[in-house]
UniProtKB/TrEMBL annotation:
One of its GO terms (cellular component) is protein-DNA complex. The modification 4-aspartylphosphate is found at D53. It holds the Pfam family Response_reg. Residues 127-226 bind DNA. Keywords: DNA-binding, Phosphoprotein, Two-component regulatory system. Signal peptide: none annotated. Residues 4-118 form the Response regulatory domain. It comes from the Bacteria. It comes from Nocardioides bruguierae. GO terms for biological process: regulation of DNA-templated transcription. GO terms for molecular function: phosphorelay response regulator activity; transcription cis-regulatory region binding. This is Response regulator transcription factor. The lineage of its organism: Bacteria, Bacillati, Actinomycetota, Actinomycetes, Propionibacteriales.
Length: 234
């Protein structure tokens, strides 16, 4: 079955070439021109990737992003917008977006980013990670994280950062490694987005009582500190 892409863009001269390009790549593409229609579409049919413009006529795209995540949407969200300031990039990621592309952009670059997002969301980002006796469990195939029986709602980037740190428990993972593996070579934004993602991840883990700690090693990177673990098949 073809992977489904939802394009949320109110400008036809941008949406039409984008839809045609993605369809030529073999994707099942749907197009809507408002935030409410996007949310209604996601409730009815699952999407693998949402390409989301921020300047929608009925609501800000960040609100669409937030509401989609709150309703349980687990696919990738790529924001496409003319707002190129670093603050907007950080805020967009904080609302649950996985990637950010500034207008104007080349279709080849957008295609490459869509492929990168699909590789991470469809194939699983990392091998199954051992279960923590304190309750932290990562299901890499399903891209879900649990604290005991409670699922911890993470964005795509938060999940990928945690997966890398958990697969190197008690070892430092450099900032450069995290940026390269999670945001890949197409990311040209500030590395402050990594700090924002780490901050959100810490808050979410702490809020459900996970005892593992994401520790910053100044000037180097981050480490997930945990106790003894037993490997389980995933």
């Amino acid at each position: 079955m073809a992977q489904r892409v939802l394009v949320v863009e109110d400008e036809e001269d941008i949406a039409f070439p984008l839809v045609r390009t993605l369809e030529r790549e073999g994707y099942d593409v749907s197009w809507v021109d408002s935030g409410e229609r996007a949310l209604a579409d996601l409730e009815g049919v699952a999407a693998d990737v949402v390409i989301l413009d921020l300047g929608l006529p009925d609501m800000d795209g960040l609100e669409v992003c937030r509401r989609a995540r709150e309703s349980g949407f687990g696919g990738a969200i790529m924001i496409v917008t003319a707002r190129a300031a670093e603050l907007d990039r950080v805020v967009g990621l904080d609302y649950g977006a996985d990637d950010y592309l500034s207008k104007p952009f080349g279709l080849a670059e957008l295609q490459a980013r869509v492929r990168a997002l699909l590789r991470r969301t469809q194939n699983g980002f990392a091998p199954a990670v051992p279960e923590d006796p304190n309750g932290l469990r990562i299901d890499a195939a399903a891209r879900r994280v649990y604290a005991g029986d409670q699922e911890v709602p993470l964005t795509g980037k938060e999940f990928e950062v945690l997966s890398i740190l958990a697969s190197h428990r008690d070892k430092v993972v450099s900032r450069g490694r995290l940026m390269a593996d999670v945001w890949d070579e197409n990311w040209y934004g500030s590395t402050k987005t990594l700090d924002v993602t780490i901050g959100r991840l810490r808050q979410k883990l702490e809020s459900v009582g996970v005892t593992d700690k994401v520790v910053a090693v100044r000037g180097v990177g981050f480490r997930l500190e945990a106790g003894q673990v037993q490997a389980t098949s995933g």
